[in-house]
Amino acid sequence: MNLRSINLNLLKTLQVLLKTRNVTVASRELFISQPAVSASLKQLRVLFNDKLLIKGEGGLLTLTHKAGMIKPQLEQWLKQGENIIGLNEKIIPEKLAHTFQVALHSQVSEFIFPKLYRYLKKHAPLVTVKETSITDLNDLSYKELYHFDLIIGVFKNIPKDYLTDFYYSDHLICLSGNKLLNKKDKITKKDLNTFEHVIGTYLHDYTHSISEPFLKAHGIQRQHRMIVTDIVLAARLAYLESLLVVISKRQAAFLQTIYPLKLFELPWKSPALTTEILYKEIEKDNPLIIWFKEVLHKCLE
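The structure corresponding to this sequence follows.
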């Protein structure tokens, strides 16, 4: 193979195709049209005398044996090339123009995104964020999951080829809109069983949440007639209808800026609620991903 005859852009396209295994996703990452990616794949097949990618399951392409052998060598070669020509230079936030695709549980976005907006407006005005609310990772296909740069939430299982970074830890408390209860300094087990709750959860089945097994283990059977996925709605209902809502302390602090609800620590120490940042393993050295994770941590300060 004569290197002088190779368009280096083709190799970059091949790298992204082997990584994403999807023409649509590859076109998005490369900022070119789908037909252009398909045309490049045809040229690559001729160049390597191999199909490279064939139809697979779940909307994803499958690598041929030859493509599997090419992939690690191509990754290493292109990374070395990027280092040589300076593509991994330090990011200058005020000049960075990029859109980050972020998926997260709505309970996280409510209090992180206002701070994130203010930070980006001040320090990285050309950066945009496209937010998608999700409930459970199991609801997403691998193709849908791969679309996101970062996913933020509480995860029970980590998908293959993904890594997580610790984001923050929290614990459960009770917000009360009940004026009678709010005259007290502490909340009791009897109070939690007597007064009506509104259940706020991002899961389809709230019984699978962390809070429900914890409360049941301490003899709490929540009386309720409403289960909602929007924590602001849960707080509004608690305020208007004199209800209780058990949520995380960070969420509560945000909601208290909207409604005059009283915060009670639970009678028992609650389990730690660990929120993590999920991202693709192949992106662990990506300067854009590293920078954006740093920004997210600054939004907690």
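The domain at 170-273 is CATH 3.40.190.10 (D-Maltodextrin-Binding Protein; domain 2).
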